[in-house]
Amino acid sequence: MVDVVLMQGFANFMWLLSMALIVFSAFALLDAVTRREDAYRAADKKTKPFWLIILGIAFVVNLIFPILSFLPIIGLIATIVYMVDVRPAIRSLPGGGRSRRGSSSDGPYGPYNGGR
Q1: 54 with 29: CB under 8 angstroms?
Q2: What are the domain boundaries of the chain?
Q3: Predicted confidence band at 47 (pLDDT cuts at 50, 70, 90)?
Q4: Does pTM surpass 0.85?
Q5: 36-72 burial, b for 16+ CB within 10 Å, e for fewer?
């Protein structure tokens, strides 16, 4: 009886850990999607397509494979590298590296202030 309870508790813990990894990798992937491509080059952190591919593979691996295999661990390492190295470097750039839509008053070099 105690063995069944312990195994069920371990299975629940592993399921929660797996869900946490999926959410973590999804957040990193969505964050990478919203950053400008030139911000990656300005921060000298590879390119946006490189990180999208790496984080996309990490997300899919976390969805498909159980947590006890080595592939989700590799995906976790890639996600951690993005979150603790690439993301802070991009966020430190002016504008935070976020993609933004230009307004109708934007000129080729930024917002037009009417000569003021």
Answers
A1: no
A2: 2-95
A3: very high
A4: no
A5: beebbeebebeebeebbebbebbbebbeeeebeeebb
Taking the C-alpha atoms of residue 98 and residue 113, their distance in angstroms, rounded to an integer, is: 22
Q: Rounded mean pLDDT of 14-41?
A: 94
Which one, of 26, 25, 24, 49, lies nearest residue 36 by Cα? 49
Residue closest to 48 by CA, chosen among 18, 13, 90: 90
Instruction: Return the half-sphere exposure (C-beta side, CA atoms, 13 A cut-off) of residue 102.
Output: 9
- Residue pair 54/78 in contact by the 8 Å Cβ criterion: yes
Q: Which amino acid is at 34?
A: T
3-state class (DSSP) for residue 35:
strand
Closest CA to 29 of 71, 98, 79: 79
